[in-house]
Amino acid sequence: MAERVGFIGLGIMGRPMALNLLRAGWNLAVYARRPESMEPLAAAGAATCDSPADVARHADILFTMVADTADVEQVILGPGGVIEGASPGAVLVDMSTISPAVTRTIAARLRARGLAMLDAPVSGGEAGAIAGTLSIMVGGEAAVFERVRPLFAALGRNIVHVGGSGAGQVCKSCNQIVVGATIVGVAEAILLARASGVDPARVREALLGGFAASRILEVHGQRMIDSDFAPGFKARLHQKDMRIVGESALELGLALPSAATIAQYLNALVGQGLGEEDSAAIYKVLEAMSGSRSAHGGLVPAESPC
Ligand code: NAP
């Protein structure tokens, strides 16, 4: 394993992904904004660094897993960023979910310095990150993809080279439309079952055997039934993803009405101060739109305005 590997961003997703690279035997250097985030990695044998530039000095292949587009720009191109420490021939693999257009701009800046970039956002959530079973959607040059493929194998199962630079991020936008629309559909189904006095757990169980089955029904449906909205995938990050989808729709002149509706649910959720909860909490927005529940789960009729 000659390649030296770096990892920047050790949150819900980045920490288990970096641990999986270590477990697979890769020589790893890490950086996180809060030093305490690096402790589990240091305990497992990773070298810790003071800045993204410092990680880049110690790495041939470098992963970023931070939050939003501006964060990736800062970590790669900003002061103390990757671009200051990386040597020509190194590869930057951004696994955050960010703007496809900005991804292409960053890739061009890096190319001018002799550095390659892949965009490689993921789906599969925290559970997939821990289990090393993520779906990885890759944009960039095929030869660079092949170089990084052995590392992707430590992180995911379904690893698809989608196309050129930015194609991975476009694919992730497509993923988030389907995921968001399915969360809304599952939330409506569970609300209807509850309000009808029917056990939503039994409804979920029945639906999982038919055409309505999905991972969202399985995982997010269970969260809604248990009222367990610990993230998971934070609502503010899903809101950010739908902002990216909306930007693409605007740039391309596309009507994506479902995507716009999902964004409004997430705006309401974040507006209620629930941005740190899992995006399955969209259920709460629907519930609030429909009025409060009675003890047996049925709707309480609204008071007459007259
Ligand atoms: P998270 O738990 O909030 O972690 C993000 C990490 O990035 C944090 O540790 C944060 O540091 C760090 N970070 C953010 N901005 C930074 C900056 N400017 N400089 C240095 N570090 C910075 O989020 P996550 O759930 O791991 O998600 C990470 C990315 O994966 C996001 O783009 C998200 O959309 C995507 N994603 C998430 C999931 C999921 O289920 N969670 C699934 C697929 C994709 P601090 O801790 O100091 O704030």
| CATH homology-level superfamily of the largest domain | NAD(P)-binding Rossmann-like Domain
| Approximate shape | globular
User: Strand order within the widest sheet?
Assistant: 3-2-1-4-5-6
Low-confidence stretches: 294-302
Strand content: 5-15%
Short description:
This protein has 306 residues and is of the alpha/beta class.
Question: What's the topology here?
Answer:
Elements: E1 4-8, H1 14-23, E2 27-31, H2 39-43, E3 47-48, H3 52-57, E4 61-64, H4 69-77, H5 82-85, E5 91-94, H6 100-111, E6 116-119, E7 122-123, H7 125-131, E8 134-139, H8 142-152, E9 156-163, H9 167-195, H10 200-207, H11 215-226, H12 235-252, H13 257-271, H14 282-290
Parallel strand pairs: 1-2, 1-4, 2-3, 4-5, 5-6, 8-9
Antiparallel strand pairs: 7-8
Helix pairs in contact: 1-7, 9-11, 9-12, 9-14, 10-11, 12-13, 13-14
Explain how this protein is built:
There is one protein chain. The chain has 306 residues and is α/β, with parallel strands linked by helices. It has two domains: 4-163, Rossmann fold; 170-289, Orthogonal Bundle (N-(1-d-carboxylethyl)-l-norvaline Dehydrogenase, domain 2). The protein contains 14 helices and nine strands. The strands form two sheets. Strands 3-2-1-4-5-6 form a six-stranded parallel sheet, with helices on both faces. It has a three-stranded mixed sheet with strand order 7-8-9. Helix 13 (257-271) packs across helix 14 (282-290). The radius of gyration is 21 Å and the shape is globular. The protein starts with a strand and ends in a 16-residue tail after the last helix. Bound molecules: NADP nicotinamide-adenine-dinucleotide phosphate.
